[in-house]
Write a structure and sequence with these properties.
The complex is a heterotrimer of chains A (about 230), B (about 290) and C (about 325). Chain A has ten helices and ten strands. Chain A is of the alpha/beta class. In chain A, strand 4 and strand 5 form a beta hairpin. In chain A, helix 3 runs parallel beside helix 7. Chain B has one domain: ABC transporter involved in vitamin B12 uptake, BtuC (Orthogonal Bundle), CATH 1.10.3470. Chain B is built from eleven helices and two strands. A two-stranded antiparallel ribbon of chain B has the order 1-2. In chain B, strand 1 and strand 2 form a beta hairpin. In chain C, about 80% of the residues lie in helices and about 0% in strands. In chain C, strands 1-2 form a two-stranded antiparallel ribbon. Classes of the chains: A alpha/beta (about 230), B mainly alpha (about 290), C mainly alpha (about 325). Chains in contact: A-B, B-C. At the B-C interface, helix 4, helix 9 and helix 11 of B face helix 5, helix 11 and helix 13 of C.
């Protein structure tokens, strides 16, 4: 479904990605794991169109989306929950969700999507007229994921959804992600929490220093020093 | 002594409402796009002339032609945005602000001189059959036309507020102001939001200009004065704060009037500029704005 | 000859020509035009020191120019010698600059620009109120009025301004100023005091603009004291510097000369058209060619040089091909 080939990406003169190649098949839950600053978030930025790569390409369902505008990429069916969620704090929960359904394809199905999202995240339904700025960290993360789902994506990108959340909440969020995947949304997940990532995902890529250094699943990845270190604490 | 002073205060409020309206347009555009269009005063001037010529050539009441002035300025806004300002969208904030200021500056010269060539340097005023009418309350004279201006300015601002709060486009604009990256990831077309904000700003300037034309007078060289006013009030009111900006306009209007009452009309402009400088240097978030990064 | 020597010779030759110019030309109107060109060059060059080299867009330049005219006119018409009056003009401008400089430099970028504009407007309005009467030359001064010394004064001020720009730009101070322009925060972290460099540039800019004002006060027979404070002078200087090329020595000179020529040519036809033309040029420069004419000229030379090199290359390979016939496989 998603194919990335030979992507190099720069922040100004600083190279962040070197020849990244990976693929995600329909229905999979794939994780990108690796140490801080490895380039995992950068990879998601490239897919979403926030950072055009200097070489290589990104193909989604056969279509080339390298260097497309981010809002066009959303319209093609890829939605990203950025690091920290980044909800619109000055707007209500409901308004945030409505904005998630901004693209015309999603706007038509807004009511339906709201129902679906409220069933996955009942806490949001309770708070739907509250300003997003008054929500707790966990609730904001849920809102961010819910907002991304409102655009009816076929591929959901998640950037560190568990970051800064209490362990109980982390469990809940991961349960929700699994459910979303089970409902048919393909997921590409960036996670620092290696244990959770390996448990959740069908497959994972190990990213280090802007390069993919390994691919595999579960315990098969323990041969990587960084993975083992993170796994064993 | 009380009545002349009260008269001044009232005059200040009436003109201050238009100051506020002019500033809100610039504040909206700048707040969303960070384009500092210093030709805002010239857009206002063109709004005034659009209204003036509709009245002079077609005999249509200036309050009735407000919608057409809106459309005309809207089209001007689209043209100017696409031709000139849209190229600055991708720049960093510092560069954006500075370069659009320079572009606006060149644009103001062009627009001012085009207007001079077309319509001469004479003052024009839209004088309707009711232009001379006034209410007198406690000895204070309230020209009907200027009262109408106040009402219309308020209506425009309420309409703008509702637009930003209730409509899809308005919410997209608010989201973009708060976090443009998150907005684009939600599928919002940032270029379109920029265009919409710019055009809205131009339209508000146009309405303000039309109201100035009917309540006071217009002349091709009025642009700089009104741009400065808009900047002063925008800074006074704080970015993104519609009510605050409107109140800032009233404050400026009243301060100018009262100053001219005590120190003579020659220094009205000076006091506004002094306040502006003080606020810029010591309280850049304005009197009502919140401290933002 | 070294580059510096070439530049020096070019400068001396140009000065010589400019000095000889009014003696060779009969028409007073052309000498007046020359005065105007030199004045604009001085204004644009002095603005360029702060605006071009140091990157601080000062929209209040007219204030320095105006203060120069004010002090010089007052001193000169009250009997002081000319040199003292001119010095007074420049000094008043510098004093004002230093007074407002420290608070003003708390503002950056466009906010600094708008702030300086507001400041200059305050002066403009105030001077208009305090000195509303036309400033006319008294009859004996008028009787002794000669154009030639005025021309040479303008020439001197313009030459001084350009030379000062050149020396400053090529000095250590100049390097610091350009560092402040490019990356102020990075420069600070390297020990370059941004405030100090900005103040130096501001002072130089103000002093030279003040001198230009002094020359203006010596030259003009009658004018309203408010006139030189008008923002139009600032806008003209800024446009000339940008269209010619900010941050270069030649830029403001080319911009100034071009501006006056276009203005004169278009004034023959349609009065304010030159401003529209310059407005358009200015926008084009900001959008597409930030280095102005100087940059355009550099591009042109590079393109021509490339063309010449290509031609040379094809000639060379052609010669080889046209060499003596070599039999065999």
């Amino acid at each position: 479904m998603l194919e990335i080939e030979g992507v190099d990406a720069f922040y100004g003169d600083l190279q962040a990605l070197w020849g990244i190649s990976l693929h995600v098949d329909e229905g999979e839950l794939v994780a990108l794991i690796g140490p801080n600053g490895a380039g995992k978030t950068t990879t998601l930025h490239v897919i979403s169109g926030l950072l055009p790569p200097s070489s290589g390409n990104v193909r989604f369902r056969g279509r080339d989306l390298t260097r497309e505008r981010p809002d066009k990429i959303v319209a093609m069916g890829i939605s990203q929950v950025p690091e920290g969620g980044r909800v619109f704090t000055g707007m209500t929960v409901l308004e945030n969700l409505e904005l998630g359904a901004f693209i015309p394809g999603a706007r038509r199905h807004k009511e339906e999507s709201l129902k679906r999202v409220f069933s996955i995240f009942p806490r949001l339904a309770e708070r739907k007229n509250q300003r997003a700025g008054t929500l707790s960290g966990g609730e904001r993360q849920m809102l961010a994921i819910a907002r991304a789902l409102m655009s009816k994506p076929t591929l959901l990108l998640l950037d560190e959804p568990s970051f800064g959340l209490a362990p109980l909440l982390v469990e809940q969020i991961f349960a929700m992600i699994t459910e979303i995947n089970a409902q048919g949304v393909t997921v590409l997940l960036v996670e620092q929490n290696v244990r959770a990532a390996l448990e959740l995902s069908h497959r994972a890529y190990v990213v280090e220093n802007g390069r993919i250094v390994g691919e595999g699943s579960g315990t098969g990845l323990l041969s990587f020093e960084s993975v083992r270190r993170a796994y064993l604490g | 002594m009380l009545v002349p002073l009260a008269q001044n205060v009232v005059s200040g409020i009436l003109v201050g409402a238009l100051y506020g309206l002019a500033a809100v347009g610039l504040s909206l555009t700048f707040g969303v796009t960070k384009f500092l269009n210093v030709a805002h005063g010239e857009l206002l001037m063109f709004g005034g002339y659009a209204s003036f010529w509709a009245f002079t050539l077609l005999g249509v009441d200036p309050f009735l032609t407000l919608p057409t002035t809106l459309v005309f300025l809207g089209l001007m806004g689209v043209l100017l945005y696409k031709l000139l300002f849209s190229r600055m969208v991708k720049a960093t904030e510092d560069v954006k602000v500075k370069n659009t200021m320079l572009i606006g500056f060149g644009l103001s010269l062009i627009l001012q001189n085009v207007a001079l060539r077309l319509w001469t340097a004479n003052d024009r005023a839209i004088t309707t059959s009711y232009s001379g009418m006034a209410l007198t309350v406690f000895g204070v004279r309230l020209p009907v036309v200027r009262l109408a201006n106040l009402v219309i300015a308020l209506v425009c601002l309420v309409a703008l507020h509702l637009f930003l709060q209730r409509t899809c486009t308005g919410k997209a604009i608010r989201a973009t102001v708060e976090d443009w990256a998150a907005a684009t990831l939600a599928g919002i077309d940032i270029d379109k939001v920029y265009l919409e904000s710019f055009v809205l700003g131009a339209m508000l300037a146009g309405v303000a200009g039309a109201l100035v034309g009917v309540g006071y007078s217009i002349v091709p060289t009025m642009g700089l004065e009104w741009t400065l006013i808009a900047l002063i009030v925008m800074v006074l009111g704080g970015l993104g704060n519609i009510m605050g900006t409107f109140v800032g306009g009233i404050i400026l209007g009243v301060t100018q009037s009262v100053t001219s009452y005590f120190a003579g009309g020659a220094y009205r402009e000076v006091v506004g500029l002094l306040i502006f400088l003080l606020v810029l240097v010591f309280r850049p978030q304005g009197l009502f704005g919140t401290k933002q990064g | 000859m070294s580059k510096k020597a070439v530049a020096l010779v070019a400068l001396l030759v140009t000065l010589g020509l400019l000095a000889a110019f009014p003696l060779l030309v009969a028409a007073k109107s052309i000498v007046n035009l020359g005065c105007l060109v030199l004045l604009y060059i001085a204004l644009a060059s002095s603005w360029n020191i702060l605006g071009g080299y140091t990157g601080q867009t000062n929209l209040g330049h007219a204030a320095f120019f105006g203060l120069g005219t004010l002090a010089t006119r007052l001193l000169w018409l009250s009997g002081r010698p000319l040199w003292l009056s001119l010095l007074g003009g420049g000094s008043l401008a510098v004093v004002f600059a230093l007074l407002i400089g420290i608070p003003a430099f708390r503002l950056r970028g466009a906010y600094f620009a708008i702030g300086t504009l507001a400041l200059a407007q305050i002066l403009y309005v105030t001077v208009g109120n305090v000195f509303p009467m036309l400033s006319a030359l008294p009859s004996q001064v008028l009787a002794n009025y000669q154009l030639l010394p005025r021309y040479y004064l303008f020439l001197g001020v313009a030459a001084l301004t350009v030379t000062a720009s050149y020396l400053l730009a090529n000095s250590r101070l100049g390097l610091g100023m350009m560092a402040v322009r490019e990356e102020e925060d990075a420069a600070e972290s390297l020990g370059v005091s941004a405030l100090k460099h900005k103040l130096v540039a501001l002072s130089a800019s103000a002093f030279l603009a003040g001198l230009a004002g002094g020359a203006f006060a010596y030259y003009h027979v009658g004018y309203y004291p408010q006139l030189p404070f008008s923002p139009v002078w600032t806008f003209d200087a800024v446009m000339m510097a940008y269209v010619g090329g900010t941050g270069t020595i030649v830029g403001p000179i080319v911009g100034g000369a071009f501006y006056v020529i276009v203005k004169e040519y278009l004034a023959l036809k349609l009065v304010e058209l030159h401003l529209i033309v310059f407005g358009i040029l200015f926008i084009l420069v900001v959008l597409f060619l930030p280095g102005g004419f100087v940059e355009a000229w550099a591009h042109l030379r590079k393109a021509l040089a490339r063309r010449a090199a290509q031609r040379q290359a094809s000639l060379d390979s052609g010669e080889r091909r046209a060499g003596p016939y070599q039999p065999g496989p």
